């Protein structure tokens, strides 16, 4: 998963996840972040649409991170359905 670091790699959330790990919360559930690494434009640009690249260029964004997610948590008894 590619993340645009609009505030750069010195943002508190990025430093916290880089040091202590974290979890990604989505509508489907949550997953541990297994790895986090900085990537440059040569890696990020091909994965972004033309419009997004234009907007990021206008705002001077140069920093990106790639999140590697761990396997999703299995559903709990409350989340699974029985037939």
Description:
The chain is of the alpha+beta class and 83 residues long. The protein has one domain (2-69). It is 27% helix and 29% strand. It has three helices and four strands. It has helices at residues 12-20, 41-44, 50-58, and strands at 2-4, 23-26, 29-39, 64-69. A four-stranded antiparallel beta sheet has the order 1-4-3-2. The longest helix has 9 residues, at 12-20. 2% of the residues are buried. The mean pLDDT is 86.
List keywords for this structure.
4 strands; four-stranded antiparallel β-sheet; 83 residues; alpha+beta
Count of distinct structural domains = 1
**Helical segment count:** 3
Please identify the structural class as seen in this structure.
alpha+beta
Shape: globular
* Beta-strand residue percentage: 25-35%
Mean pLDDT across the residues is 86
Strand order of the biggest β-sheet: 1-4-3-2
Spans where pLDDT lies below 50 across 5 or more residues: none
Spell out the blueprint of helices and strands.
Layout: E1 2-4, H1 12-20, E2 23-26, E3 29-39, H2 41-44, H3 50-58, E4 64-69
Antiparallel strand pairs: 1-4, 2-3, 3-4
Short description:
This protein has one domain. The chain is 27% helix and 29% strand. It has three helices and four strands.
